[in-house]
Give the backbone structure.
Amino acid sequence: MSDNKPFYEHHVFFCMNERDGDNCRQSCGKAGAIAQKHAKKRIKKLGLSEPGKVRINQAGCMERCEEGPVLVVYPQGTWYTYVDTDDIDDIIDTHILGGQVVERLKI
């Protein structure tokens, strides 16, 4: 039974990959862990963590390491990079709540 409507209004995936050793590629893991926890708390505080509303998840490597740390918001498929929790708040306020892309963070 599918009505082609996404289950979540917004499904946000944070790259949490951590590379071992002296790999030349950047790793999103540490930044992703902090940002993902912050986003989860903020979405819950806003009352948006109900089923079908907003889901914050962690993901493994999403192959955009050089642009990281990264997250992607579905169903739109909008990719973002970020520096700190202020950027995460901007994504939540502008994209999740306001329906507009945060152009300065879009990749």
